[in-house]
Amino acid sequence: WIEKFEEDYFTRRSRTPKTETTWKKHYRAIFRRLPQERELTPQILLDAVTATKADTASRKQACIVTGALGKFAQIEFDPKPYRGSYSPKRAKPRDLPDDNTIAEWFYKIQNPSWRWVYGILACYGLRPHEVFHIDPDSLQEEPGILTLKDGKTGGRRIWPCYPEWWREFGLGTIQLPAVHGRANSELGERVTQYLRRNARLPFVPYALRHCWAIRTLEFGLDLSLASQQMGHSVQVHTDLYHHWISDRHHQRAFELLMSREDRPQPPAL
Q1: Between 141 and 239, whose confidence is greater?
Q2: 153 contact partners, CB below 8 Å, separation of at least 6
């Protein structure tokens, strides 16, 4: 059944490095837990689900995958009662670096190519693998509106936040490191490994993407625009990033609002 399911899966979509990564990460990882030489039954599917921890992303994914396989094999199996209450909102907020720390670390990275990669991630909030899918011509003119040719969710355009970093970090001069990978997941892993192990970055590179999202909230960028530039839905944007806003972010937004010359004034009695 697994072999037939895989054949059907790739009949419905092209077999590319991107879809192969999705298959391996979300489907094959769970199918491997099934007893390969036994007849597929509802109990076997249920065992695969309950082997994961309740109320986690793993449990939710196991329910999705086993449910899809059960439906394909025409087996009466309903995983919904076991999905639990997992939500990105339940995840523990990351300890994100402030913008001053982000800027300081740009200058601590010695390798010019990897320093440029870091600057791009900080200024545009890309997923790590997406630095290898940039249209270099899009970064030549100020303020450096980046065009992404491909990525996890396809191509899109991203505005710099801050545009000053585009100038200060010299991001218009493309300096990609000589990195190869068949799939986006491999490219992303190369970025993460270098910045964490070699550059000794004290936070995960993906945190730069989260910081970009929070920064756009502070600046008041409309959620639909910010989510589109990040390559995900408004719902995902809200679930992930509103949950992480701290008092520091609220205070900064308050100060920006109060400093506006055109802000409403209290009544004069």
Answers
A1: 141
A2: 231, 232
pLDDT for residue 89 is more than 60: no
Q: pTM of this prediction?
A: 0.70
Q: Helix axis angle, 207-219 relative to 223-230, nearest 10°?
A: 160
Closest CA to 185 of 27, 15, 20, 14: 20
Residue 178's Cβ-count burial label (10 Å; 0-12, 13-18, 19+) is: exposed
Q: At 256, list the tokens.
A: 């920006």
Q: Comparing C-alpha atoms, which of 126, 94, 56, 88 is closest to residue 240?
A: 88
- As a whole number, mean pLDDT of residues 192-209 equals 94
Give me the mean pLDDT over the 94-112 stretch: 92
Q: Rounded CA gap, 268 and 251, in Å?
A: 26
CA atoms within 13 A on the CB side of 175: 15
| Structural contact between residues 52 and 59, judged by C-beta atoms closer than 8 angstroms | yes
